[in-house]
Design brief:
The structure is a single chain. This protein has about 260 residues and is of the alpha/beta class. The chain has one domain (about 10-250): Rossmann fold (3-Layer(aba) Sandwich), CATH 3.40.50. Helices cover about 30% and strands about 20% of the residues. α3 (about 50-80) crosses α4 and α3 (about 50-80) packs across α8. It is globular and about 50 Å long. The termini are far apart. The model is unreliable at about 1-5 (pLDDT under 50). Bound molecules: S-adenosylmethionine. S-adenosylmethionine (SAM) binds near residues 133, 177 and 179. The site of S-adenosylmethionine has 19 residues, from β2.
């Protein structure tokens, strides 16, 4: 009997170039609680508790992380192991797992800013909201522990007044993949994030093609770096890198050509 699959439910829907790479993120066996949590964060997946679903989710999480890693590799080559990293909106933790294992950042402390919440109809570049969280802190912890990640702390945004500025920075690397900068306006968060960054820190955000620069961004060194997507049908997107060090961005990525 033909099985009805939702989008992102077949290995064939994934980019083979990305999904075929070494696996760092391991998905635990999917049970109804984890399926519900994944569905809330990534509604494009219609997963069950079967092994095919587990495998597709695992490959997709790895593939997405490989794509970002490959785009950022020139930067990672220059950066030493960061002391403290902040991830804003880690979802189910794919990036923490990937970076900790792939980069062998064994002493790095990962601070994760997330909150429990209901499934979202994701907006693009929308105003900051306290009601936008769709995480599940119990499942996030479960996935991190299943993957053997130890050096992390989860900061429940609901307990920080939904603000970032009370977090224990400074951070050497800050990122938000498909979160702040993509669904929610980076301009609304930037002053808080900037205040948490060490002088040589780099912040990285997934941005949509409709992303618009804001005045304070123009005053800070930044660079757009394209990356591939794990769903074969998806067009490439950009990562926006921001740093107080223009030199670091220029060293990692060739200096931008001036227009004639
Ligand atoms: C599309 S998911 C991305 C998850 C993960 N970064 C990934 O790429 O797999 C967006 C995440 O941002 C979180 N989020 C929602 N509102 C937020 C806010 N105001 N500040 C920070 N994170 C938020 C959600 O709870 C969710 O985990």
């Amino acid at each position: 009997m033909a099985k009805r699959f939702g989008l992102g439910h077949k290995v064939a829907e994934l980019s083979s170039a990305l999904a075929g790479k070494e696996i760092y993120f391991r998905s635990p066996p999917l049970d109804p609680e984890l399926v519900r949590a994944v569905k809330a964060i990534t509604p494009q997946f219609s997963l069950g508790t079967d092994e095919t679903s587990r495998r597709v989710w695992e490959l997709s999480q790895n593939g997405s992380s490989w794509a970002e890693y490959e785009a950022l590799a020139p930067l990672f080559e220059l950066m030493g192991e960061p002391g403290r990293v902040l991830e804003i909106g880690p979802g189910m933790g794919r990036s923490v797992v990937f970076l900790a294992k792939r980069m062998r950042w064994t002493t790095t402390r990962f601070d994760l800013y997330e909150a429990d919440g209901e499934a979202q109809r994701y907006p693009l570049n929308a105003p900051r909201s306290q009601a936008s969280f769709c995480g599940d802190l119990v499942q996030l912890r479960r996935v991190l522990e299943y993957n053997g990640v130890e050096n992390y702390q989860i900061f429940d945004a609901a307990k920080t007044g939904f603000r970032l500025d009370g977090l224990p920075g400074p951070y050497d690397f800050v990122y938000s993949f498909y979160g702040v900068g993509f669904h929610w306006s980076l301009a609304d968060f930037w002053e808080e994030i900037r205040g948490l960054m060490s002088p040589t820190a780099v912040a990285v955000f997934t941005v949509h093609h409709t992303f618009e620069e804001f005045p304070r961004l123009a005053a800070t060194a930044h660079r757009y770096v394209p990356f591939r997507r794990v769903l074969a049908k998806d067009r490439p997107l950009n990562l926006l890198l921001i740093s107080q060090s223009q030199e670091l961005l220029d060293q990692a990525f060739a200096p931008r050509k001036t227009r004639k």
